[in-house]
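User: Here's a chain of 368 residues. Predict its fold as tokens.
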Amino acid sequence: MADTFKFHGDHVGSLLRPQALLEARRRVEAGMIEPEELREVENEAIAGAVRMQKDAGLTIFTDGEFRRQDFRSGIVDAFDGFTTKEVEMPWQSPTGTVTLLSTQYIVSDRLKQQRRITEGEVEFMRTLTRGHLKVTLIAPGFVAERCWQDGVSDQAYESREELGAELAAATKAEIEALFAEGVMYVQLDNPGYAAFLDSHVRRGNGHGAAFERMVAIDAAAVEGIERPSGASVGMHICRGNNASLWLAEGGYEPIAEQLFGSVPVDRFLLEFDDDRAGGFDPLRYIPEGKVAVLGLISTKTPELEDVETLVKRIDEAARIIDIDNLAVSPQCGFASVARGGNKLTPDQEFKKLWLVAETAFATWGFET
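Assistant: Prediction complete.
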């Protein structure tokens, strides 16, 4: 494994979109303003997001995914070959199931890359900070599985494996390009693994084969990547995140051994914010020297967790994995979907990120 920074105070990447940004995106979609005007609004919003992260005491900085409609759209916008349709999805809340209209992306033709997946993102971020940059990407295993539609995608690709191999190669090239630009931390997001937990997500035929295929595709995207000194690749295992709702429940035990042992990332970002996430026992499968990022702070509720309680939970996890190979973060992003941001105010979001930095300092001290 590469000699990587620990980044004991971490966050998953997406931030609440300012209302001005949401409105500008709506206006450009309606043809009321030009894309260049949206870009200016994005730049202003990203500059504010970086200032907020600095004020919170964090040592890694993202652009909040402010140039994206949702966590998938980086890769979707970079390639021709995707179409969309609206589908109803069952989301979970503390009071039961809520059905929301969601956008499904479908691979309907051979993919043809038109630009970098993160075109221009790092260049602008470098005008705002000399600190460590983190960039998020959707995991190719998720796209190969969830954007495949029988009778459509198989007209362009012989199999999900063929599609996955192409996506993995594109993702690997993007990670290498990001490292060449000086990015120190690239994070893959794969909420598809939630389907393999003990959860509300219904399991269909071929469940085991789908999991193994997803793991193999994600592993291929990372295998053999040379990290610059201190650089990291992470994988966030999400349970779904939209308007303070979630898709899946259950611990990581059913997937931990194969997933942690097969995908050669340096960090696993795991959700442990409430009882639906299960306990820390699956951490025993984290390979020696790799970092487990404990998502202990909820982005779904405005209530602020207690530092002392969070430190005790980190100490509990340290009975399983060396405390130096642990980190703390929110369990997920604040707005995986731009218009589906979680039910917090910007001030509450800031306090949550401040709590990350405060808890990291209370546990590990200052970071450089």
